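Recall the central idea of this unit: under ordinary conditions, the amino acid sequence of a chain determines the structure it adopts. In this exercise we apply that idea directly, starting from the sequence alone.
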Amino acid sequence: MKLVIASHNAGKVREIGELLAPWRVQVVSAKDLGLPEPEETGTTFAANAELKALAAATASNLPALADDSGLVVDGLGGDPGIFSARWAGPDKDFAVAMTKVLDGLTGKTDRAARFICALSLAWPDGRIQTFVGKVEGTIASAPLGTHGFGYDPIFIPTNGCQTFAQMNPTDKHAISHRADAFRQLVTACFDKDANS
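Accordingly, the structure predicted from this sequence is:
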């Protein structure tokens, strides 16, 4: 099965590819196919994932898997939320985005946060299925670690003592928001659709 990963984010493409590895699916990114990035006009992670998956499936005539995910911080009123990537600016500088989160939490005691991921699997005929996963945690006082991408250096999962960026990638994949959504997707549809 050939599957388009409807993303131009190399970190997401790599992580989704690693999650798909046991199924020997041939993956290609939307960027590699030269597909444009659709404007994310949805008001939820699920709406944006569906928009991206359908656009990639239609343009490539292949099944497409899209992820829309982000960091939701209670002490920031739920920000950055669906605007997580936009907080990194046009250069996708997540050091800037993490500084914005940490500065916003200065003097606040509530550091509870969660990563949320919506995964949408779309087919060229317009069928789509969406699964939402999450992982609870807290915001660290400073970025730590070199693994992962995005906000991983400031997110400590509940009952953990390391940020996602300090964790071995295999350990992160076992508990991440993306892995949670992916498990739901596999249970619901991946095995039965792998040969279609």
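The domain at 2-193 is CATH 3.90.950.10 (Maf protein).
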